[in-house]
Amino acid sequence: MIEKINLNNILFLDIETVPEEENFNSLDEEMKSLWDLKTQYQRKDDFTPEEFYERAGIWAEFGKIICISVGYFTIKGDVRNFRVTSFFGEEKKILKDFNNLLNNHFNQPQHLLCGHNAKEFDIPFIARRMIINQIAIPDKLNLFGKKPWEIAHLDTLELWKFGDYKHFTSLKLLTKILGVPSPKGDIDGSQVAHVYYVEKDIDRIITYCEKDTIAVAQIFLRLRREDLLIDDEIIHV
Protein backbone atom coordinates (compact mmCIF):
# COMPACT_ATOMS: atom_id res chain seq x y z
CA MET A 1 0.00 0.00 0.00
CA ILE A 2 1.65 3.22 -1.12
CA GLU A 3 -0.23 5.12 1.59
CA LYS A 4 1.97 3.43 4.19
CA ILE A 5 5.25 4.54 2.63
CA ASN A 6 7.00 7.34 4.50
CA LEU A 7 7.34 10.18 1.97
CA ASN A 8 10.67 11.17 3.54
CA ASN A 9 12.14 7.89 2.29
CA ILE A 10 11.48 8.47 -1.42
CA LEU A 11 13.89 10.08 -3.88
CA PHE A 12 11.97 11.32 -6.92
CA LEU A 13 13.96 11.68 -10.11
CA ASP A 14 13.98 12.49 -13.80
CA ILE A 15 16.77 12.56 -16.39
CA GLU A 16 17.38 14.37 -19.65
CA THR A 17 19.43 12.72 -22.38
CA VAL A 18 20.79 13.69 -25.79
CA PRO A 19 22.74 11.93 -28.56
CA GLU A 20 26.34 11.43 -27.43
CA GLU A 21 27.58 13.34 -30.48
CA GLU A 22 25.95 16.44 -31.93
CA ASN A 23 25.43 14.83 -35.31
CA PHE A 24 25.69 11.50 -37.11
CA ASN A 25 28.81 12.46 -39.05
CA SER A 26 30.74 12.91 -35.79
CA LEU A 27 30.54 9.14 -35.21
CA ASP A 28 33.34 6.90 -36.40
CA GLU A 29 32.56 4.45 -39.18
CA GLU A 30 32.05 1.49 -36.83
CA MET A 31 29.59 3.40 -34.65
CA LYS A 32 27.72 4.55 -37.74
CA SER A 33 27.36 0.94 -38.82
CA LEU A 34 26.30 -0.16 -35.32
CA TRP A 35 23.73 2.65 -35.19
CA ASP A 36 22.38 1.50 -38.54
CA LEU A 37 21.96 -2.04 -37.20
CA LYS A 38 20.60 -0.99 -33.81
CA THR A 39 17.82 1.15 -35.29
CA GLN A 40 16.93 -0.92 -38.35
CA TYR A 41 13.61 -2.09 -36.93
CA GLN A 42 12.52 1.32 -35.63
CA ARG A 43 13.52 3.17 -38.82
CA LYS A 44 12.19 0.66 -41.34
CA ASP A 45 12.46 2.42 -44.73
CA ASP A 46 11.13 5.74 -43.46
CA PHE A 47 14.44 7.24 -42.30
CA THR A 48 18.10 6.92 -43.11
CA PRO A 49 20.43 6.23 -40.16
CA GLU A 50 21.58 9.84 -40.36
CA GLU A 51 18.05 11.23 -40.32
CA PHE A 52 17.17 9.03 -37.36
CA TYR A 53 20.21 10.03 -35.31
CA GLU A 54 18.37 12.91 -33.63
CA ARG A 55 16.63 10.19 -31.56
CA ALA A 56 19.89 8.62 -30.36
CA GLY A 57 19.39 10.05 -26.89
CA ILE A 58 16.91 7.32 -25.96
CA TRP A 59 19.56 4.58 -26.22
CA ALA A 60 22.24 4.47 -23.53
CA GLU A 61 24.73 3.03 -26.04
CA PHE A 62 24.42 6.10 -28.27
CA GLY A 63 23.21 8.82 -25.89
CA LYS A 64 24.40 10.54 -22.75
CA ILE A 65 22.88 12.14 -19.65
CA ILE A 66 23.04 15.92 -19.44
CA CYS A 67 20.86 16.45 -16.35
CA ILE A 68 19.54 14.44 -13.41
CA SER A 69 16.99 16.24 -11.26
CA VAL A 70 15.97 14.85 -7.89
CA GLY A 71 13.42 15.84 -5.28
CA TYR A 72 12.62 14.69 -1.78
CA PHE A 73 10.16 15.53 0.95
CA THR A 74 11.14 16.90 4.33
CA ILE A 75 8.12 16.64 6.62
CA LYS A 76 8.36 17.77 10.23
CA GLY A 77 5.10 17.94 12.11
CA ASP A 78 2.62 19.81 9.95
CA VAL A 79 5.34 21.52 7.87
CA ARG A 80 5.88 19.89 4.48
CA ASN A 81 8.59 20.88 2.01
CA PHE A 82 9.79 19.37 -1.24
CA ARG A 83 13.42 20.09 -2.04
CA VAL A 84 14.56 19.91 -5.66
CA THR A 85 18.10 19.96 -6.99
CA SER A 86 19.86 19.05 -10.23
CA PHE A 87 23.16 17.57 -11.35
CA PHE A 88 24.43 18.85 -14.69
CA GLY A 89 27.64 19.50 -16.59
CA GLU A 90 30.05 16.80 -17.76
CA GLU A 91 28.34 13.41 -17.74
CA LYS A 92 30.90 11.62 -15.57
CA LYS A 93 30.56 14.28 -12.88
CA ILE A 94 26.74 14.11 -13.07
CA LEU A 95 26.88 10.36 -12.49
CA LYS A 96 29.45 10.60 -9.69
CA ASP A 97 27.43 13.26 -7.88
CA PHE A 98 24.24 11.22 -8.21
CA ASN A 99 26.12 8.14 -7.03
CA ASN A 100 27.35 10.02 -3.96
CA LEU A 101 23.80 11.17 -3.17
CA LEU A 102 22.51 7.59 -3.26
CA ASN A 103 25.41 6.14 -1.29
CA ASN A 104 25.42 8.83 1.40
CA HIS A 105 21.75 9.73 1.82
CA PHE A 106 19.48 7.14 0.18
CA ASN A 107 21.28 3.86 0.87
CA GLN A 108 19.11 2.34 3.60
CA PRO A 109 16.62 -0.53 3.05
CA GLN A 110 13.64 1.81 3.55
CA HIS A 111 14.80 4.21 0.83
CA LEU A 112 13.04 4.11 -2.55
CA LEU A 113 13.57 5.69 -5.97
CA CYS A 114 10.56 6.94 -7.93
CA GLY A 115 10.12 8.25 -11.47
CA HIS A 116 7.66 8.05 -14.35
CA ASN A 117 8.61 5.10 -16.56
CA ALA A 118 11.82 5.08 -14.52
CA LYS A 119 12.01 1.29 -14.35
CA GLU A 120 12.05 1.10 -18.15
CA PHE A 121 14.09 4.20 -18.95
CA ASP A 122 15.72 6.44 -16.32
CA ILE A 123 17.14 3.81 -13.99
CA PRO A 124 18.52 1.40 -16.65
CA PHE A 125 19.92 4.38 -18.59
CA ILE A 126 21.74 5.71 -15.52
CA ALA A 127 23.15 2.27 -14.66
CA ARG A 128 24.38 1.65 -18.23
CA ARG A 129 26.02 5.05 -18.47
CA MET A 130 27.74 4.43 -15.12
CA ILE A 131 29.23 1.23 -16.50
CA ILE A 132 30.32 3.01 -19.71
CA ASN A 133 31.94 5.73 -17.58
CA GLN A 134 33.53 3.12 -15.27
CA ILE A 135 31.64 4.24 -12.17
CA ALA A 136 30.64 1.69 -9.54
CA ILE A 137 26.88 1.12 -9.57
CA PRO A 138 25.30 1.96 -6.20
CA ASP A 139 23.28 -0.75 -4.50
CA LYS A 140 19.96 0.96 -5.27
CA LEU A 141 20.65 0.61 -9.00
CA ASN A 142 22.34 -2.78 -8.98
CA LEU A 143 19.53 -5.26 -9.60
CA PHE A 144 21.66 -8.34 -10.29
CA GLY A 145 20.49 -11.30 -8.23
CA LYS A 146 17.71 -9.36 -6.53
CA LYS A 147 14.20 -10.74 -6.26
CA PRO A 148 11.39 -8.47 -7.52
CA TRP A 149 10.30 -7.55 -4.01
CA GLU A 150 13.88 -6.56 -3.13
CA ILE A 151 14.07 -3.87 -5.83
CA ALA A 152 13.54 -0.51 -4.16
CA HIS A 153 12.00 1.27 -7.14
CA LEU A 154 8.60 2.88 -7.55
CA ASP A 155 7.21 3.94 -10.90
CA THR A 156 4.17 6.18 -11.31
CA LEU A 157 3.53 4.70 -14.76
CA GLU A 158 3.50 1.19 -13.30
CA LEU A 159 1.29 2.28 -10.41
CA TRP A 160 -1.17 3.74 -12.91
CA LYS A 161 -1.17 0.56 -15.01
CA PHE A 162 -2.71 -1.55 -12.21
CA GLY A 163 -1.30 -4.66 -13.86
CA ASP A 164 -2.26 -3.66 -17.43
CA TYR A 165 1.17 -4.07 -18.98
CA LYS A 166 0.05 -2.98 -22.45
CA HIS A 167 -0.98 0.43 -21.20
CA PHE A 168 1.25 3.50 -21.55
CA THR A 169 0.29 6.91 -20.23
CA SER A 170 2.59 9.89 -20.66
CA LEU A 171 3.52 12.10 -17.74
CA LYS A 172 1.77 15.02 -19.45
CA LEU A 173 -1.50 13.10 -19.87
CA LEU A 174 -1.42 11.75 -16.34
CA THR A 175 -0.90 15.19 -14.82
CA LYS A 176 -3.80 16.52 -16.91
CA ILE A 177 -6.34 13.91 -15.90
CA LEU A 178 -5.30 13.96 -12.24
CA GLY A 179 -5.54 17.73 -12.01
CA VAL A 180 -1.83 18.26 -11.42
CA PRO A 181 -0.38 21.57 -12.67
CA SER A 182 1.29 20.90 -16.02
CA PRO A 183 5.03 20.26 -15.67
CA LYS A 184 5.78 21.36 -19.21
CA GLY A 185 7.40 24.68 -19.89
CA ASP A 186 8.60 26.13 -23.16
CA ILE A 187 10.26 22.92 -24.46
CA ASP A 188 9.42 19.24 -24.73
CA GLY A 189 11.56 16.12 -24.86
CA SER A 190 11.99 16.21 -28.64
CA GLN A 191 13.62 19.65 -28.41
CA VAL A 192 16.15 18.92 -25.67
CA ALA A 193 19.02 18.00 -28.02
CA HIS A 194 18.50 21.20 -30.06
CA VAL A 195 18.42 23.34 -26.91
CA TYR A 196 21.57 21.59 -25.66
CA TYR A 197 23.70 21.50 -28.79
CA VAL A 198 22.46 24.50 -30.80
CA GLU A 199 21.13 26.97 -28.24
CA LYS A 200 23.53 25.76 -25.54
CA ASP A 201 20.96 26.68 -22.89
CA ILE A 202 21.36 24.14 -20.11
CA ASP A 203 19.30 26.29 -17.73
CA ARG A 204 16.14 25.72 -19.81
CA ILE A 205 16.80 21.99 -19.71
CA ILE A 206 17.34 22.01 -15.94
CA THR A 207 14.05 23.86 -15.44
CA TYR A 208 12.27 21.34 -17.68
CA CYS A 209 13.80 18.38 -15.84
CA GLU A 210 12.97 19.78 -12.40
CA LYS A 211 9.36 20.42 -13.41
CA ASP A 212 9.03 16.77 -14.42
CA THR A 213 10.50 15.65 -11.10
CA ILE A 214 7.98 17.80 -9.22
CA ALA A 215 5.18 16.42 -11.41
CA VAL A 216 6.13 12.84 -10.48
CA ALA A 217 5.92 13.74 -6.79
CA GLN A 218 2.55 15.43 -7.37
CA ILE A 219 1.18 12.33 -9.13
CA PHE A 220 2.39 10.20 -6.22
CA LEU A 221 0.52 12.46 -3.81
CA ARG A 222 -2.60 12.17 -5.97
CA LEU A 223 -2.36 8.37 -5.92
CA ARG A 224 -2.33 8.61 -2.12
CA ARG A 225 -5.26 11.08 -2.18
CA GLU A 226 -3.15 13.74 -0.47
CA ASP A 227 -3.04 17.48 -1.05
CA LEU A 228 -0.84 18.63 -3.90
CA LEU A 229 2.27 20.66 -3.25
CA ILE A 230 1.86 24.42 -3.48
CA ASP A 231 4.61 26.72 -4.72
CA ASP A 232 5.61 27.80 -1.22
CA GLU A 233 6.36 24.19 -0.29
CA ILE A 234 8.78 23.65 -3.20
CA ILE A 235 12.37 24.68 -2.51
CA HIS A 236 15.00 24.72 -5.26
CA VAL A 237 18.47 24.06 -3.85
From TrEMBL:
One Pfam entry name: DNA_pol_B_exo2
MF term (GO), any: exonuclease activity
Coiled coil region boundaries: none
InterPro entries documented for this protein: 3'-5'_exonuclease_PolB-like (IPR019288), RNaseH-like_sf (IPR012337), RNaseH_sf (IPR036397)
Keyword tags: Exonuclease, Hydrolase, Nuclease
Predicted 3'-5' exonuclease PolB-like domain residues: 62-224
Record-given protein name: 3'-5' exonuclease
UniProt key word Nuclease: yes
Source species of the chain: Flavobacterium panici
Statement: the UniProt record of this protein carries the keyword Phosphoprotein: no
Source organism phylogeny: Bacteria, Pseudomonadati, Bacteroidota, Flavobacteriia, Flavobacteriales
Domain of life (superkingdom): Bacteria
